[in-house]
Design brief:
The chain is an all-alpha fold and about 45 residues long. It has one domain. Helices cover about 70% and strands about 0% of the residues. The chain contains two helices and no strands. The longest helix has 19 residues. The radius of gyration is 11 Å and the shape is globular.
Length: about 45
């Protein structure tokens, strides 16, 4: 998988989260949701 493919997946997940929950959450909440969704899809994520 290339860097561009990984970046697209991350961007799409972040966009989905923002679309579903909207603006107004703390940055840390968005971060935790993104980490959760990426791990759920099999990515290894370090914060």
């Amino acid at each position: 998988m290339t860097e561009n493919e990984i970046a697209k997946i991350i961007f799409d997940k972040a966009f989905d989260i923002h679309t579903k929950f909207g603006p107004g959450l703390f940055k840390s909440v968005y971060e935790k949701l993104l980490v959760y969704k990426l791990k759920k899809d099999g990515f290894q994520v370090e914060k």
